[in-house]
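Notebook entry, structure prediction.
Reason for the run: the old model in the group folder had no record of what sequence produced it. Starting over properly, with the input documented here first.
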Amino acid sequence: MAELPMFLTNMTRSSPHSSLSKAIALLPSPLRPLHGRRTAPLALPDNIICFRRSSAQELNKPQRGRALHHRYVLIIPLQTAVTVCVDEKTVRLKAGEGLLISPFQFHDYIDPEAEELNWLFITFEHADGEALQGLRYRPFQLTSELSLLATELVAAYLSTAAADLTALLLAVFLERVRRMDPQKRHDSEHAGSPGLLAQVNQLTMRSCGNTSVKEMARSIGISASHLRARFRASCGVSLGRHMRRLRLEKACGLLRMSQKRVSEVGELCGFSSIYSFSRAFHAEYGISPLAYRHGEKPRKKARR
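New structure, fully documented this time:
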């Protein structure tokens, strides 16, 4: 697709009417008035949640605002720089920048510049993962155009009658980011030692949920009892419950975004039978895995 004229990407530098006049002047007369450009089927963001974080202490608590790992997480800090650890890489995310976390990318936050934050989070599902692959580990600048788009998006989200508009605005936002030139940075590097939460997350998912606490502790280099105690102290939730939630969250993603049978999903997420999978899923969300696949919303919040 041809690039848009430069003035169309810098509309805030001149009046809207002036920019529109320049755009109109470039339009040719249609050779075939009844045959225009047809568009390919569009995959729009779905199941969108927007929320704010105002304190650095809120970022790493699994029991409050913990990222759903089968979802995309768009992070837009307006105040306070924080280092984001994504899998085994670190990115220093400054105020006025943004970052997209992909499904099943584990992330946590370290070294906040200050305790007070003003961060916008937008989490969503997307059927066309390939279109967003190029944004992995790629911070972007929140330009004035993107800031205006984000403002419209939040306003639409706050309006109960504008769900479709929210999805459309988010799709435009992501496409604008995708077309931006990557920033030249020198602060993204491999993390020397992932935090305890990141290590537990990675080991749980790599093993499809089949690893035991004893095996996990051996991999980390501490005793099982020490691992349990450290995890509860730092994350505020038991290790066993956290691992079970991870497996169920992975199951949610597979149910939403794959055509695998429910029994296959349960097996891939470490459950010994479809019955144990269905019981665990219903206990956590109040509905069956099949009902969730068909679009029914969970009837109760995940226990914290």
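Summary: Residues 1-9, 63-68 have pLDDT under 50 and may be disordered.
The old model has been moved to the deprecated folder.
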